[in-house]
Amino acid sequence: MKIKNSSFVISAVAKTQYPEDALPEFAFAGRSNVGKSSLINMLLNRRGLAKTSSTPGKTQLVNFYDIDGLFRLVDLPGYGFAKVSKTQKASWGKIIDTYLNTRQNLIEVFQLVDIRHKPSNEDKEMYEWIRGGGFNGIVLATKSDKMSKNQVAQQLKMIRKELNMDEDAVIIPVSATERAGKYDVWDVINDLFEANGIDIHLERQSGETAPK
């Protein structure tokens, strides 16, 4: 199938606000300035569907996006923003924890890290939770356009070591600016559909070609 319609569903704080159906969901977790919203827009070929903010830490809700009424992408609250109170951080952490621990139709959590920097303690804690929760530990290294190919290779190796990733764990360099890694991410999602016995297979959007 090719994606025809993608739309914002709801921004939720509490579990009671989550969509009530059982559509499969893929969540994106990461620091508040790592580029989750930009990545979702890039994946869906939509400009401005997922709202980006110039102020890190501003959007602290669980945002649900519907794709053709078949599945959803979920943008989790950003973490690790220094200029907020401990009370705010605790509140955001609870929002993330509630979703990750209670959402039965959650298929996979993608961990986003900034390829330019060493993973933070919060990044490491989130990755440990993802792996401990039975997920695959798939990492998307954002902002790859800021580095040369040699630097990208070196940083991926460093990130893999810092997060203590398994040798066969997937890490994909992505860039919303250059649309790099888009097809790799969709390939992974297609594999996850197949592994979970879900009869969905996504094709490239009309007129698109894979980057060389």
Q: How would you portray this structure in words?
A:
- The chain is α/β, with parallel strands linked by helices.
- The chain has helices at 36-44, 86-102, 121-132, 149-162, 182-195; strands spanning 6-12, 25-30, 62-67, 71-75, 106-114, 138-142, 171-173.
- Strand 6 (138-142), helix 4 (149-162) and strand 7 (171-173) form a beta-alpha-beta unit.
- The two termini are 23 Å apart.
Mean pLDDT: 87
Number of domains: 1
Strand arrangement within the widest β-sheet reads 1-3-4-2-5-6-7
The number of helical segments is 5
Known CATH architecture: 3-Layer(aba) Sandwich
The biggest beta sheet is recorded as: 7 strands, mixed
Q: What proportion strand?
A: 15-25%
The CATH superfamily bears the name P-loop containing nucleotide triphosphate hydrolases
- Structure summary, number of beta strands: 7
- CATH topology, anyone? Rossmann fold
Short structural summary:
The protein is of the alpha/beta class and 212 residues long. 31% of the residues lie in helices and 19% in strands.
Topology:
Blueprint: E1 6-12, E2 25-30, H1 36-44, E3 62-67, E4 71-75, H2 86-102, E5 106-114, H3 121-132, E6 138-142, H4 149-162, E7 171-173, H5 182-195
Parallel strand pairs: 2-4, 2-5, 5-6, 6-7
Antiparallel strand pairs: 1-3, 3-4
Structural descriptors:
alpha/beta; single chain; seven-stranded mixed beta sheet; Rossmann fold; 212 residues; 7 strands; 5 helices
